[in-house]
Amino acid sequence: MSAISIGQAVVLGAVEGVTEFLPVSSTGHLKIVEGLMGIPVDDDAVIGFSAVIQVGAIAAVLVYFSKDIARIVSAWGRGLRDREERYHHDYKFAWWVILATVPVVVVGLAAKSLIKGPLASLWVVAGSLIVGSAVMWWADRTGRHKRGEDDTSFTDAMLVGGSQILALLFPGFSRSGATMSTALLLDLDRVAATRLSFFLGIPALTGAGLYELKDALGTGTGAAPLAVGTLVSFVVAYASIAWLLKFVAQHTFNTFVIYRIAVGVLLFGLLGTGVLHS
Prior knowledge:
The chain is an all-alpha fold. About 75% of the residues lie in helices and about 0% in strands. The two termini are about 25 Å apart.
């Protein structure tokens, strides 16, 4: 019998799609919803399922930004053949995305037992939601928002890419939240910070999904729930991306800060009263 039913897959896919690219922690929300539905959050099949359905959200990024991605990949290919093309920003940006993914991959493999063990606790999720909110508020308040996407550098990419480690180790901190906050502290504007977060998430999240696929399929989660969850994640994530880019062009991140604090406090309350178990 599958560890996750079709109905549960639909719900989790929708949660993943809504929250993957919003700076509110998709991992944290998935763990909360899994706990409310009585799904064991530390089960290998469940962890694998959560990682695999992220591929649906990543597919939404690939489709939404297909023209940008095609341009960047094309520039990278030309640069491999022609030295003159290597001065093009898109060629350099492609390498930056690749190199900026290395730190999170290394840490993810080295700390796998911690990530799937003690750090998977809902107590950690609740604390990370609140601490990450403070970081986001500070970054949005102090960042000068004066640099656009064309002004990004190798240092920016490495620092923003490396910040994904925070979300890897502390579910609830939010990969999007960590990367966007770091980009804001580097004085990128909100749209540039958001787009950079999207592009840097493509290799990291795709790799995580493919790596966890064997666990998801081999420990009780059937192909049907995986397919349904991934499809729902794709559809919802596409809509979420379009909404977020319009939102950050006109608003601060304060809405997300307040929401994260409220969810963190609520989660502490649910854990403290025994409604949820870590």
